[in-house]
Specification:
Length: 347
């Protein structure tokens, strides 16, 4: 076990904070906790950030038995560190772990591990307004297994990296491409959890879209190819007047923490929010479209291209997405009163 060094508040990492992208930047510490199949997680510990050892027959390597989470911490002007709704990530991990036949940390264990990891890497939290410290909890079958079965051992780890904007466009509106050849998820599958197996299969469609100049891919339902579902790494919303709609959670849609938060904020602002089936044809009448996610935040969509037709949407100031984004970011950074009780201060 490694005891983290004590850093002064002004002992920040030597980084170009004005040009942070969204990539891995090795920090000082990570958190590790293990347990065997049929047992519960107990005491974890901080270790120096570095490689981990896995046998070639590890369940995660051979059968993809793993789920992960993502959350962020922001630094206030007075130096305090603010974490956003970590218990929701813990709950979602437990749900995903059950689907993947894995034990999972308790909610308290999860939140405590996140807090310890952030404090040990405090100097990597960007200054106010310069970005955030992205936190990646990961739960995997680390034990070796040859036949198709649950792994005999499990590892829960947390690592962090300072990040800026997720998309290379920065805050510019996204241009999405509707994918019809590939599916993101299907009924009865794992689209509703953050399984690691959900993401690599989407790389082909994403690469194809980016090579054509698009920001990301918008997927349709796998059965009828008529209803919008989700973007590669984020949820999607459409706006028409005072009404905001987002695809309903049905087993193929990830229940995003940011998605849920935006729904609650929008209702608090007086908007009518519906979670429902959204036919692709409704995009032609939408005033606005925007995406939500921990990594992307709230990102406005400038256009969606479907079957060769480009549909444009309202963006910029005075938009619904900008209003909701400002409130969400204000809560996360301590500039807007947290009436919801979402913020956890790390001390």
């Amino acid at each position: 076990m490694c005891e983290p060094s004590i850093y002064r508040d002004d002992d920040n990492a030597d980084l170009d904070w004005d040009n942070l992208g969204f990539g891995i930047m090795p920090t000082d510490y990570m958190y590790l906790m293990k347990c065997s199949k049929g047992e519960d997680f107990e005491q974890g510990q901080l270790n120096r950030y570095g490689n981990i050892e896995l046998g070639p027959a590890a369940g995660v390597l051979n059968y993809g038995q793993a789920v992960y989470e993502g959350t962020k911490v922001h630094r206030k002007e007075d130096g305090r560190l603010l974490l956003f709704r970590p218990e929701q990530n813990a709950i979602r991990m437990k749900f995903g772990a059950e689907r993947m036949c894995m034990p999972s940390p308790s909610i308290d264990q999860f939140v405590d591990a996140v807090k310890q990891t952030v404090l040990a890497n405090k100097r990597w939290v960007p200054p106010p307004g310069k970005g955030s410290l992205y936190i990646r909890p990961l739960l995997m079958g680390s034990g070796q297994i040859l036949g198709l079965s649950a792994a005999p051992e499990y590892t829960f780890l947390v690592y962090v990296s300072p990040v800026g904007n997720y998309f290379k466009e920065g805050f510019a509106p996204l241009n999405l491409y509707v994918e019809k050849d590939f599916d993101r998820a299907s009924r009865g599958g794992t689209g509703g959890i953050k399984s690691i197996t959900n993401y690599a299969p989407g790389l082909k469609a994403l690469t194809k879209a980016k090579n054509r100049g698009f920001s990301d891919v918008l997927y349709l339902d796998s059965v009828n190819k008529k209803n919008i579902e989700e973007v590669s790494s984020c949820n999607i919303f459409i706006v028409k007047g005072n009404a905001i709609s987002t695809p309903a959670i049905n087993g193929t849609i990830l229940p995003g923490v940011t998605r849920r938060s935006i729904i609650e904020i929008a209702r608090d602002h007086g908007y009518q929010v519906k979670e429902r089936v959204i036919p692709i044809d409704e995009l032609t009448d939408a005033d606005e479209v925007f995406c939500t996610g921990t990594a992307v935040g709230v990102a406005s969509v400038g256009s969606i291209t479907h079957e060769g037709k480009r549909i444009k949407f309202k963006t910029g100031a005075q938009t619904v997405s900008q209003e909701l984004y400002s409130t969400l970011v204000g809560i996360k950074t301590g500039l807007v009163e947290d009436k919801m009780g979402w913020i956890v201060e790390i001390e």
